[in-house]
Design a protein that fits this description.
- This protein is of the alpha/beta class and 410 residues long.
- It has two domains: 197 residues, 3-Layer(aba) Sandwich (Rossmann fold); 158 residues, Phosphoglycerate kinase, N-terminal domain (Rossmann fold), CATH 3.40.50.
- Helix content is 39%, strand content 15%.
- The protein contains 18 helices and 15 strands.
- The strands form three sheets. Strands 3-4-2-1-5-6 form a six-stranded parallel beta sheet.
- Strand 13, helix 15 and strand 14 form a beta-alpha-beta unit.
- It starts with 17 loop residues before the first strand and ends with a helix.
- Bound molecules: 3-phosphoglyceric acid (3PG).
- 3-phosphoglyceric acid (3PG) binds next to loops.
- The site of 3-phosphoglyceric acid has 10 residues, from loops.
Length: 410
């Protein structure tokens, strides 16, 4: 796929037009609501600069319902205003009277950030695209706009309302970030050399298991190494007793059902998925490395992969020609439990071609100053690995359909 398959800002006359831009500002947040890493916010600035002569309304999400960091977009608007050097007005409404009247009163150069679109329950319902177009949000908002731009590469693997609902009704194209991601990831696919290893960590267990299966089935990866919560689920699936605190954590995240799923994938790809041999347990803040068979007896939470695993994984990663990192190896924000994540990042930087995707791991790449040493740092987590696994991303597919329709009618 090339950037020519869809329209971009260059294809539209944007002067004084009212433009709805779906952005992905989903950022790691601390319990007090502070944004820990603003890379995603910053990454949309080129798009906003190119829309200076328009009236721009941003639609975005933060986290998922039920999670601790499921919050309003107020903090995001403040940070964005700082980067843009112009006010980004936060409106605590998505498509109600307040939002619609604020949009109607906009002047050229104004930028509005609407409320977290996932506060609206229909956003996350999976439905055919033509049904998405008939929902309240799309019917209320679309008459107010001339153009829709999708700049939210990082959530374009979701067929959600704000991603695919407007493209059938409004002239639609990609923002600058979307263009940049597609170009860079396409380049990496073309040069993708073997052995290719995907290192899947973090806490989005369902996504990681799906990707492991996809990339191993398609031949997109020769091997998958697992870390983070996904490793714990895989260990449990392989028959290891990971102890009560770790099982409870999996349950609290709603991932108990993923254990059976992980079992199927482990059986299907025997020998292709690397599991941790040891783990770092958190004993009141102190790191204790133990063999995987000893984890259960200690009754403590696993907060990182163990040192033996770090050494084994690092040597495999360094010798690979292509490495894709997704999700941290442990609770990297806790002192002593960042070692796995840092060492995996360093090893990946020494491999042939390195890509990191996802908010948390890319924040750690920048934390240790390894940004320049990576071939590509993607703003996408799940979207990046789905793209590299060869999946069609609904958000990008919707832009392609919109481009065809636009070209036929122009
Ligand atoms: C991400 O952080 O990967 C994107 O913002 C998508 O978020 P989601 O996995 O909650 O849909």
């Amino acid at each position: 796929m090339t950037a020519k398959d869809f329209l971009t800002i260059d294809d539209f006359d944007i002067e004084d037009r009212t433009i709805l831009v779906r952005v992905d500002l989903n950022s790691p947040m601390d319990p007090e609501g502070g944004i820990l890493d603003d890379m995603r916010i910053h990454s949309h600035i080129p798009t906003l600069r190119d829309l200076e002569d328009a009236k721009v309304v941003l639609l975005a999400h933060q986290s998922r319902p039920g999670k601790n960091d499921f919050s309003t977009m107020e903090a995001h608007s403040r940070i964005m205003s700082g980067y843009l050097g112009r006010k980004v007005t936060y409106i605590d409404d998505i498509f109600g009277t307040y939002a619609r009247s604020s949009i109607s009163e906009m002047k050229k150069g104004d930028v509005i950030l609407l409320e977290n679109v996932r506060f609206y329950s229909e956003e996350s319902l999976k439905r055919p695209v033509d049904e998405q177009q008939r929902t309240h949000m799309v019917r209320q908002l679309s008459p107010l706009f001339d153009i829709f731009l999708n700049d939210a590469f990082a959530v374009s693997h979701r067929s959600q309302l704000s991603i695919v609902g407007f493209t059938g009704l409004l002239p639609s194209g990609a923002g600058r970030l979307m263009e940049r991601e597609i170009t860079a990831l396409n380049k990496s696919l073309q040069g993708n050399e073997c052995p290719c290893i995907f290192v899947l960590g973090g806490a989005k267990v369902d996504d990681s298991i799906k990707v492991a299966e996809n990339v191993l089935s398609s031949g997109g990866a020769d091997r998958v190494l697992v870390t983070g919560v996904v490793a714990n689920v895989m260990l449990a699936a392989s028959g290891v007793d990971i102890g009560e605190p770790n099982m409870k954590f999996i349950e609290s995240q709603g991932y108990l059902d993923q254990i059976d799923r992980a079992k199927e994938v482990l059986e299907k790809f025997e020998g292709k998925i690397g599991l941790p041999r040891d783990a770092a347990l958190n004993d009141n803040g102190t790191r204790i490395d133990v063999k995987i068979e000893e984890v259960a007896s200690k009754n403590l939470p696993i907060n990182d992969i163990g040192l033996e695993t770090i050494v084994a994984y690092s040597s495999e990663i360094e010798n690979a020609k292509t490495v894709v990192l997704n999700g941290p190896a442990g609770v990297a924000e806790l002192d002593g439990f960042e070692i796995g994540t840092f060492e995996i990042i360093k090893a990946a930087a020494n491999s042939g071609y390195s890509i990191a995707g996802g908010g948390h791991i890319t924040a750690e790449v920048r934390n240790i100053g390894y940004e320049e040493q990576f071939s590509h740092i993607s703003t996408g987590g799940g979207a990046c690995i789905d793209f590299l696994a060869g999946d069609e991303l609904p958000g990008i597919e919707a832009l392609k359909v919109a481009a065809k329709r636009y070209q036929e009618t122009e």
